[in-house]
């Protein structure tokens, strides 16, 4: 029997804590007796667990005056502490950091952003981000965790992830969860944006590169090897001579539909010039964007056949110029029984989407709740 | 508060039962005291739950003689009842049914198969399958459920699924779970075949059609709209003039790598002739199979970029003839950071794979354990 492993009982205990917090989150206020019934925990176990949660400020006991019936002491109820359980989200892009703070009810109580140079060190980026959080003057008295979005996937992300986690965990003494910021954007769009009400979402962002994030059953998909959601590197060659991609692969979607490819193919200086040419009806530029749209539609057809998502969300500066062509290509490549009439939805959140996703990472993806291993350890290792 | 909904307490109770069964399955034998600790359930709740499980014959109490220490009554231990909790699996192909029976330890105690004509009615197919199960003379005294694999996806599967579920549920008075038989094969290969030890598996079968199944985190992926895993319909055109597919889409993998496409492209009468021509070094036939292999590799590159699986398994009569080319194409289309050096593994189970997967559907995919809705209701509805 493997029950004597060290840590098993601690895991069991953390599981109980999560269960109690989840029940209080779902039901609002519960008496101890009701919590006992719903959790199935023994009175003594529950008493230990609730005591620890109260000591940490996560749970509070109160005595509602209304609805008091009969003589004797009114029944005490337990609730999540609305003033506790804050989360901090940070999204480190190539040239700016966004931070956001949420209260226990997952209401965003403040956001801020600050630019930096591509060459800015990680030590300095962290300093700027922490100063931004301080500037929001939010109550972080019962901080539950910090979520962090960073660029890159696999080993590229791993390089700075460890230092970031260590720095922030030391500063606040709370769990720090880290993931790719495009994945976090997918989570945020599902919870607060264009995927609201859905739990199976494919999110793709068309910008200087093409990234993606996939939510299955309300959870971020990371994949066994940590690189799930790299939709920009799905091969969609338009002929046998597949273009080489900067990733080292061939025929990737990114070689058709990312900004550098579009500018090169259209002989254009920058995206505003490209969009102006489209606006002016330039047929050569239209052809370049239409090819990108068809490539996107083909990649998404493959994703649909593989995943059967509920909603597809397309973000990034390029999105509006290719959405229509891509949707038509998606519907041309798949039969109705597989595309289910899915539309391509434009993303609805702004540049703060990554920081909002980082908040959600903490609130929704606690390793114990989600059944995933610690995301910071899935990082290509 | 939503706690007064009818059924909540019953769900809670079933959740407790599942937890107890899972702990006993993981640990083998447990004392009541140890089960109390690991489950976190109160003594009285646990006593209720164990009593009900004993009454149903799912759990037995025994007193091990060995290892007895000290005076007094030896400690009683609880185990899953090895004679109870049988499962029946059935796989209805186009021209034959396979059945399998497993005991509570998920050991297969018998399998059988029987052919029928494509035109055979569903009533007759069910009759044949039930007679086959009877012929195995297995003890079904504590049957836990019946898993059924059928061909087709979405609406095509839905047409007969309801009648099958109704017939079998009435005959045995147990839950009946139904899914696509290629998906079930994916589950079986993960548990007992080429995916053994993995929990994130992509399975693809190349035959008269091309089907697939995806397992993520040990669970079958069905997708929000029920059609996940249709890898045969990923578009992989080799030029702008994508071939129309029988599904109604264009450029699907199936138009290159399924048996009918290979025979047509090679001008060949049947697969044995095609394989003999390959064996004999016929360059034109080799070229046809290599194109199919490249198309497969491209489709799997897209699946890898999307899902980041742990293992890829390729089944079906066509598999051996395209595996090498497909693996090379997969590695050419993706960078190492995304293909992770993944190989293509040949499937290792025989034609009984679907029936084994149907057993696994019951044992591993109980709706309560998996968090999925009832799979029979995900059937394109």
UniProtKB/TrEMBL annotation, chains A, B:
Protein name in UniProt: ROK family transcriptional regulator
Record lineage: Bacteria, Bacillati, Actinomycetota, Actinomycetes, Streptosporangiales
Similarity comment: Belongs to the ROK (NagC/XylR) family.
InterPro entries from the UniProt entry: ATPase_NBD, ROK, ROK_cs, WH-like_DNA-bd_sf, WH_DNA-bd_sf
Domain of life, per lineage: Bacteria
PANTHER family per record: BIFUNCTIONAL UDP-N-ACETYLGLUCOSAMINE 2-EPIMERASE_N-ACETYLMANNOSAMINE KINASE, ROK (REPRESSOR, ORF, KINASE) FAMILY
Organism: Actinocorallia libanotica
